[in-house]
Amino acid sequence: MKSVRVLLAVLAAALVMGTSGEASAFGRHRHGHAVACYKKVVEPAVYDYVTRRVMLTPGWYDTEVTPAVYRTVHASVVVRPAGYDWIVKVDSHGNEVRCKVERPAVVRQVARRVLVNSGHSSRVYHPPVYGHVRERVLVRAARYSWVRIHPSCQ
Questions:
Q1: pLDDT per position in the chain (154 positions), as tens?
Q2: Taking the CB of the first residue and of the last residue of the chain, which one, N or C, has fewer CB atoms within 10 A?
Q3: Which residues are paired to 28 by β-bridges?
Q4: pTM score, two decimals?
């Protein structure tokens, strides 16, 4: 119980001293008249827009392949050349007769694939792509200052 009373006494003393300190901190004379008054003035942050060039995609190499070009050519190929054959017959009297007969050539159409243009590959460089970006940047941070005002600032 005694410690509670001591604690309350200490708090009351601190409260009385704190209020007198506050009064002097705000420029009040001990008679209660204002010596000087100040007002807090806040200057907002200042921003600006800046346009800058940025790389959107970097440069890169690519391999372009041009395929070979072929064409189908049809040609006549002799399978069996023309010539003569001998045909043996027996005539009506029972005699053997040989006849020379012309035989035509056997020709067949053959499709053949022919290279017209050979393919190739080449390395191609694609330059980087740039663009412009507009950004908001801080020029000056927000700040505050104390400005003296008329002393009658109760």
A1: 566 565 555 555 555 554 444 444 455 555 666 678 888 999 999 999 999 999 999 999 999 999 999 999 999 999 999 999 989 988 888 889 998 999 999 999 999 999 999 999 999 999 999 999 999 999 999 999 999 887 666 5
A2: N
A3: 34
A4: 0.37
